[in-house]
Amino acid sequence: MKLLDGFLFLPVILLFSINLQSQTNNSIIENALLIAENNKKKLENSEQLLVVYNYQPENYSAVLVALERKDRNWVVKDNPIEAGIGKNGFAPPLNKLEGDGKSPTGIFRLGKLFTYEKQVNTLLEYQQTTKEDKWIDDPNSKDYNTFIRGFTNAKSYENLLLKSDAYKYCLVIEYNTNPVIKGKGSAIFFHLGIKKPYFTAGCVAINEENMKLIVNWLDPKQNPIIIMGNYNVLKSGL
């Protein structure tokens, strides 16, 4: 009788877990759609949107929801994705600083893709990364927060070809790029999370499987952008 009870109880547990996960995904999606709706004036020129948010501003654990516009409405592209952000969470709007370990809050264009691969199934502009490729994070350099190939006088920079696969797919989040303001943060990328927990120095990271799907989906003609920050901040409108 105990074996039978246990056998009957297992499907109930599994069903409960599935329903709970479904409810969780639904709430994450609803929140992302609310964020999009409450920032619609700043998003009206985009047809593809990545919504990245957390619930506690200082937490590096976040979620990503990909949305696309259909008949003037935002609809969900796929299930929510677990994401990592800066190890110290999100900086308040306009308060990101170099070296603070926080991801910036705001709405940013998605730019060029740097990749270890020679060919990528994507419509995005991309280039294969070499050991000569760098992104300057020295606030005192004239090349601060820009890409450089070859020699640089900068005292600090990010190598874009790493020993790990973190930058195997490294998409530029165009934060502090036009204009570049010294000391306001640099090298903000959308890249791979290698192992959990996915925390970064200020970037957004997801796993490779989902990254490939997103890179394949993004289309520069659709003006893809990312909105990122704490949920309470984003839902109030930027």
TrEMBL record:
Provide an example Pfam family for this protein: YkuD
Domain L,D-TPase catalytic span(s) in chain numbering: 72-227
> Record's InterPro entries?
LD_TPept_cat_dom
Name the UniProt record assigns to this protein: L,D-transpeptidase
Its source organism is Flavobacterium zhoui
